[in-house]
Write a structure and sequence with these properties.
- The complex is a heterodimer of chains A (308) and B (368).
- Chain A is mainly α and 308 residues long.
- Helix content of chain A is 72%, strand content 0%.
- Chain B is built from 15 helices and two strands.
- In chain B, strands 1-2 form a two-stranded antiparallel ribbon.
- The chains are: A mainly alpha (308), B mainly alpha (368).
- At the A-B interface, helix 4, helix 10 and helix 13 of A face helix 6, helix 11 and helix 13 of B.
- Chain B: It comes from Marinobacterium lacunae.
- Chain B: Keywords: Cell membrane, Membrane, Transmembrane, Transmembrane helix.
Chain lengths: 308, 368
Amino acid sequence: MDIDLITNILYAMVRTGTPLLLVALGELVCEKSGVLNLGQEGMLLMGAVVGFVAALLSGSLMLGFLLAIIAGVTMSLLFGVIALGFNANQVATGLALTIFGTGLSAFIGTEFVGKPINGLDPYALPLLSDIPLIGKMLFAQDLVVYLSFGLFAAVYWFFRSSRPGLVVKAVGENPHAANAIGLPVMRTRYLAVMFGGAMAGLAGGYLSIAYTPLWVENMSAGRGWIALALVVFASWKVERVLLGAWLFGLASILHLVFQGLGFSISSNLLAILPYAATILVLVLLSRNQVRARLLAPMSLGKSFHASS
Amino acid sequence: MIKLEPRGQHSKLMAWLSPVLAGCLTLVSGAILFALLGQDPAEALHTLLIMPVSDLYGVAELFVKAAPILLCAIGLSVVFKAKVWNIGAEGQLLMGGLIGSACALQLIDAEGVWVLPLVLLSGMVGGALWALLAAWLKTYFNANEILTTIMLNYIALNLLIWAVHGPLKDPDGFNFPESAMFSDSALLPTLIDGTRIHYGMMFALFAVVVVWVLLSRSFLGFQIKVLGLDASAARLAGFREKRLVWIAMLISGALAGLAGVGEVSGPLGQLVPQISPGYGYAAIIVAFLGRLHPVGILLATLLMALIYMGGEMAQINLGLPIALTGLFQGMLLFYLLACDVLINFRIRIPALSRSAVAPIASQKETVR
C-alpha cells in the first residue's frame, strides 16, 4: 500500500466522518440535557432536501446551508413541542420524527432527484496541506469540515469549562434538583434539542450540497442512527465522538479501499460493514451494565413535568 | 396561556379517542396540503381514501396490502407490551422473504402439498432468527435493541440486494436483479378468483386471534405485560426476564418473517429487490395507533393499507409524488403522540377558570 493511497484514504475518512461527527455532537449535547432524540435521521434528511433545493434554486450554497440548518431546527422544535411540551414518550416521538422526516423529505424532493449542482469545493490551506499523510486529511478539506473541527472544539470547551455546560449536565443528571435550585430545565432542554436539530440540518446540507452532491430519496442511509450509536460508543465524552466518527467514516469507505486493492467482494456485502461495526461497538461498549448506566446521563429519555 | 394539568390517572376514553382525533387532524392537514398544491381538497381526499376501494378488485387489493402490515403489527404488539422496542420488523420481514425465497428456489422442481408449508416455515424461521439475534444482543450484551434492530434492517436490505444480484438471480433472467418465478406448488393460492387476495390475510387474522388469546388469557401473556409495566415487579415475582424477551422477539420476528415470505410467494411470486414499501415501519405506526390491542390494530391496519393504496391512486390520477404515503404516515403518528397527551393530562386555560385550578392541583397530590 503506497503513501498516496493512505493519504487519500485518510482524506476520505474525514470527509465521510464529518456528517456523523456533526450529528453526533448535536445529539451528545441533547442527551447531556437528558433528552433522547431518535429523530436524527429525519432531521438529517430534511436538512439534506431543503439545503439541496435551496442551493439549486438560488444558486447560493451558503443560502442552502443556512436553510438546511433552519430546517433541522424546525424539525427539532416539532420534537421539542411534543416530547417536552406535551410530555410524550421520547422514544416514540423520535421515531415519529424520523418517519415524518423521511416521508416529507421524499415528498419535497421528488422533482429534484438526480438534478446536478456544483457542490462545495475543497479549499486547501497553503503549506499546511503539503504535510505528508495528514496534510490532505486535515487541511485540504472544504469549509464545512473545517467548521466541524471548530464545532468539536466549541462543544469540548462548553462541557469542560463553561457554566452553561454545567447547567446542561445538571439538567440531564437530575432535572428535579436542577429545577429546585432555580435552573431553567425546560429552556435548557429546548435549546439543547434545537442545537441538535441545527447540527443534523447542517450535516444533511453537507451530504446533499458538498459530499455527494445531489439529492436522492433516503440518501442519509442510516447515518442518523449510526450517529446515535456513536454517542453510546463515545460514552458521552466529546473527544471520543471525534474518534468514533472518523472510525465509522473509515468503515463506510472500506469498500472503496478493498476495490482499490483489487479484492473482488460484492459491494452490497461490503456496504453492510458500517452497520455491522455499529452493532459490534454497541455490544462491546454496553456489555458492562453498571458501567453503561453510570456513563449515561441519569435522566436520559425520561420526561419531566415541573409539578411532579 | 394553555396549561397542562396531570389527571392523576389514565383516561380510558381518551386512550381510544386519541387515534380518532389524530386521524381527523391528519385529514384536515391533508386537505390543507392538497389546497396548497393547487388540488381540489375534496376530490383529492376522495381519490386518496374512497376511490381505491370502490370496487371488488380494490377491496381485495386492500387486503393484499393489509396482510403483511397486520402480521408485522400484531407481532409488534407483543414486544411493545413487554416494552422491548423492536424497530426491526422491516428487516425481519425482508429476511423472511429472503430465506423463504432461497427455500422456494431450491425446491423449484419439486411438486407436492408439502412444498408451500416448508417455504412458509423457512420464511418464519428466517424472520425469527433475525429477531432473536437482536434479543441475544440485548439480553447477553445489554445492547440497545432500538439501534441494533435498525442496523439489522439495513443489513437485511443489503443482504437481500446482494442475493438478487448474486446467488439467487434468475440465470435466464437477462441479468435483471430478480429471482426466477417460483413453481406453482410454492405459491400461496388466491382466495377469490380474479383478484390477488391470498391466504396471507387468513394467516394474519389467525395470528390476531392467537395473540389476543395469548395476551389476555394466558399466563405467558400476563408475564409479558407485567414485564412491560414494571420490570422490577416482574423480577420480584420470579418471572424470567430474559426468557420473556426472547419469546416476545421470537413471536414478533416469526410473524414478520411470515409477512415477508407471504409477499414473495403471494402477490410477487419471485424475489425482487423491493419486496416491501416500508411495511415494517408502517406496522410500528399501526401498533401505536391501534393501542397495542388486536381490534385496534386490525382497524389501524386497514387505514394504513388504504393510505398505501391512496398514495398510488393519487400518483396515477393526480400526478402527486408517491412519497405522499410516507408523509401521511408520519403526520398520523405525530398527531397521535400529540393527542396522547390528553390521556394523562387535561388542558386548562387558567385565564378562564382561575378558581378551579387551585383545588384540583392540591387534590392531585393525594390521588397520587
